[in-house]
Amino acid sequence: MPTCEERYKQIQEMIGQQQYNEAIAALDQLVTKYNGFAPAQLDLGNLYYTAGQLDKALTHYELSVQLEPENPLYLKNLADLLYSEKKDVARALELYESILSLRPDDIQTLMIAGHLCVSLEKFEDALDHYNRVLDIEPWNDEAQQFVDRIQQKGEHVDGDMDPVTDYRRCQELVDSGQIDAALAGLETLVEKHPDFAIAYNDLGVLYYQRGDKQLCKQFYEKAVELQPENANFKKNLADFYLIENGEVENALEIYLSVLTDDPEDIDVLMVAGKICSAMGKTESAKTFYERVIDVEPWNLEASEALDKLAKSPEQ
Fold it and tell me: What pLDDT was estimated at residue 156?
């Protein structure tokens, strides 16, 4: 009879072969037999998340953390789902703080924790996180910008001098569906604070939703100009170039710059693969899709793309 580890390795092979239903059934048996087995709980969470079954994904991510509460990967998967899908900011922040207690130099987690503290109006805590980023990366423009804005908030009573609070109010307007008011607020904000990059990005998003592509492009480009290392801003601009303007080469150049900073960005790896495939750069496309599989062995879309490339006439 195979050991737990041997059976788990067999299940990993099922996932690699896209036998997802069989893998889920086998993982369920494994966690029942071996009293939880945290790695299998994580895999179940990932498989259910990929399938769009968020409640089941949440259950298994929770179980993985209960079993191994000091595993940063398990904590991050749970925190990311709570933040991005469930909008449970307070709980997500607790988990990100737990990650930082284990990995105090994790730049990405420090930035996320800082942003969540701002959204909860915990400005001193936010400053601690952003300043920690600057201790590690003194050149980090995004962290410096938030430090400057929060410090201005403490120095000035006048709301006109508080872009962080003004920006948060604009976000609340967007969340409540008051788009006209949000646009007006963001435009006023960038007039007063012309280097507040995230407001330009949000203006681009809102004008895109309104169908004003010219203004959208203008604001996306301004956001990237102000913060050329911000991956989200670059992805928004690259997506616009690709989808709306058909500027394939320009879009690919930006996507590749994102991958330089984060070589495991699944969304960008997939887009880069699709672009290269469309341009006839089969080997480059294959490289991107294989990288996706390295990071997410269960990624069905990447597996199917590789199968198509293998069957193409060029092969």
Answer: 45
